[in-house]
Please model this.
Amino acid sequence: MKISQTTFKLPSFSKGFHLIDDIVISYLRQLDSVHTGVLHLFIKHTSASLAIGENADPSVRVDLENFFYELCDNKPYFTHTLEGSDDMPAHIKSVMIGTSLTIPITDGRCNLGIWQGIYLCEHRNHASGREIVMTVMGN
Amino acid sequence: MKISQTTFKLPSFSKGFHLIDDIVISYLRQLDSVHTGVLHLFIKHTSASLAIGENADPSVRVDLENFFYELCDNKPYFTHTLEGSDDMPAHIKSVMIGTSLTIPITDGRCNLGIWQGIYLCEHRNHASGREIVMTVMGN
Amino acid sequence: MKISQTTFKLPSFSKGFHLIDDIVISYLRQLDSVHTGVLHLFIKHTSASLAIGENADPSVRVDLENFFYELCDNKPYFTHTLEGSDDMPAHIKSVMIGTSLTIPITDGRCNLGIWQGIYLCEHRNHASGREIVMTVMGN
Model:
């Protein structure tokens, strides 16, 4: 078994859910190739998340953004408010959705389902590019 | 360290939370045995999830289903509705609960807590069997 | 690649979100050192979670506790109620937040973002120390 790792920065995305498969795969190609293994992605932030989600219909990502906004924003009891009204909800969404993904690699490729894509979930209104640590392990 | 991987299909389950430990362990026995390591499970779908949950009292799984239904279903602002009223909530639950699990292997066995079981969380009303990629790494 | 694993017990924490980086790192030092790899943490319980969250302002952790309480507690339809009113919400939070973390190791250290910390999320009112299985893989 071998392991290789790299860190890269995503471009800046608007608030919402975004497909980043192409970006992830372009960086994956720079690492040692693996036939059978796992890919680990870790986002080094507390106001953005990584998730696996539907990759075909953009309305899914719109509905996700609206759902998590309704669920987490504008709570009257929030005390962590100095950094803006989008900050505390961002921390909650990050805890709820999670900051890492582990995806199987099979026959040298990410073994996602046909409808699955890799989401960057950007929870801030005005964020700069997010840093991701990518690790590949396998044979 | 060694790695081995397989893909298998679960039987079709009804909407709700279901214990699948026995099925997972039967497929795990087909892979190279590992004394110390990790087991990774990945479900190749965007409307079902994998989770670790209470394994003893079926009422926990009933309450989980009712909780996530109340939380995620029937939102008036959903726009992704063509595939049925259970579809967009399923995508949300999948993002919220997650599509993969990593479980330690110790002394050749899944090192779960005594009350922990492996859940398939089926979010659709009428789903066929779900595909899972299982990877074991360790010594 | 090498792998090493240990199990340890956290001290008892009050209900809420707590930073446990120092404890995790002290046990990590007892395992084989790894330059490049991943650290896997798994909590062997169904009423507590592990998460990555903001590490600087304690008000974030207060707001998280209040948010998840408002979201998950005191549902009139709960049927799993024999073990107290904090029990079923604890199972839900555990499914929602998750029982494991995978963190990259880079240059021999946990490669967390500058604002990221490791949370024990204690969902019970009166819990004893929680057991964690820690696995390190890498070179």
Remarks:
- The longest strand of chain A covers residues 2-9.
- Chain A touches chain C through 33 residues (CB under 8 Å).
- The two ends of chain A are 5 Å apart (CA to CA).
